[in-house]
Give the backbone structure.
Amino acid sequence: MKKNVLQFIGSFHQGGSERQTLQLAKLLKTDKTHNIFLAVLTDAGVLRKEAEAMGFSEIHAFPLNSFYDLNFVKQVRKCVRFLRENNIEVVHTHDFYTNVFGITAARLAKVKVKIASKRETGGIRSRAQDVVEKRIFAVADAIVANSYDVKNYVIAKGTSGEKIEVIYNGLDLERLEPKQKDRAEICEELKLPKDENIKFITLVANLRHTTKNQQMFLRVAQKLAKKMPHVHFVLAGEGELKPGMEKLAQELEIDEKTHFLGRCTKVPELLSVSFIGALSSRYEGFSNSILEYMAARLPVVATIVAGSSESILEGETGFLVEPDDDELMENRLIELLENEEKARQFGMKGRTRVEEHFSEEAQLRKVLELYKQKLNGE
């Protein structure tokens, strides 16, 4: 008999956690071994249309203003009623806010299996949030971490490693195939220069958190721009930090070679015209951007953060540098820019690695195994 499973997403805005949650919901729905429900805290964002196209015509929203007002209590009660009325047996939450709200409601509704998730390490949560999340993890039946680095981070914060399951992010390789192929047309649509001699170094990261450390990327861009005039720099991502980053690019006198795309709905097309994929973060959980670069057959130069050494093979699919080591990142980028054959080989090996280790199929299999174990009381 099919079990009723609720996937809880924070919002439909385009971000790594949101994309992964929606992708997993689609996989589970297609698999048809469970009845899949979808709930959200903020019922807004460009991904909502994708959710509807997947067959989630009824999306259950529990909008919050705060964790500390009467509306929170009202929404929790509403969610508890929903869980009971629909006989939900597994609640799977996917970020800090859905962990707190969804696991709380699931516990009150006496849902059989409560699964939380952790996709980040340091630099984002306050001390108070860490305390709250630790308490939530204590009542969850399992915690999904998307890298071993994240698992070790959660253990170091005081949660038992026995309930933490590492399940890597999976990629929908079909979704990442560019629908447009013509470079000039893609560049025109993305408002990038059409000159075929230009090599784009691309950073795909939201502009909401300082942990993404776009300042490092821009400092390296300033040094490279002086040495390699045909290199341009692309930042794709939305967020309140965008005006400050644009101002920094002007101060560094690289604004003419630096392109801020904001929210980009054509990431596959962007990566198809890029030469290198970059990551400058100080903290991560497991970067979706790195996997997307590799899927697009790009060599990668990334900082050593949680998950990056688990996805990138040093000297084979890319290079790893310490956060804020501008000089080494610059040198690694130059090495690839000056050796197109090496860059091509890195990109091809990266694609193969994604296909073998970070597929949707592997992710789905491990999630289904986890559900089965917990529903059977293992």
Remarks:
- The CA atoms of residues 82 and 131 lie 28 Å apart.
